[in-house]
Design brief:
about 150 residues; alpha+beta; Arc Repressor Mutant, subunit A; Alpha-Beta Plaits; 2 domains; four-stranded antiparallel β-sheet; 5 helices; 4 strands; about 20% strand; elongated
Length: about 150
């Protein structure tokens, strides 16, 4: 990867919907060259996809919580798979320590969080215990990857 591709990645992380013509102006290449570089970055798996960030408040999903999930050793993989199928679950991380997983969930409120914990997460075979931390406010939330200034 060269400095131009790195600059393209920085631009796309800032605004994924930016037209190629605008990217080409910013990096000093023809639009066709920019498009080819972007396609190459996609083929290489460097660009993993594109997403639209929705405002969760518009969809009654204001409550964020992190759930530590402890499982039996034998059930760990299956519990992770089951957790990933739950709509309210946004992230499932296999972690070190006493717990098997750290799970980020987003629900409407504490009542729906309670139902999710009791009826969906704790009900998964192999779950021994959960510990939940509710988010009071979010200071920073991003999926951007820090990129070097230059190569």
């Amino acid at each position: 990867m060269d400095t131009i591709s790195l600059e393209i990645l920085k631009i796309l992380q800032e605004k994924a919907r930016i037209p190629n013509i605008e990217v080409s102006r910013q990096v000093g290449l023809a639009p066709s060259a920019v498009l080819e570089r972007i396609r190459k970055l996609e083929r290489q798996g460097i660009i993993d996809g594109y997403e639209v960030r929705l405002n969760p408040l518009h969809f009654h999903r204001a409550q964020v919580a992190f759930v530590h999930v402890q499982t039996t050793t034998a059930a760990c993989s299956e519990v992770g798979r089951q957790l990933s199928l739950i709509t309210e679950v946004q992230e499932v991380h296999f972690v070190s320590g006493n717990d098997c997983f750290l799970v980020k969930v987003r629900t409407a409120d504490t009542a729906s969080l309670s139902l999710l914990l009791q009826e969906r997460i704790a009900a998964i075979d192999g779950v021994i215990a959960t510990k939940t931390e509710t988010v009071l406010s979010t200071i920073k939330e991003t999926s951007r990857i820090p990129l070097p200034e230059n190569l």
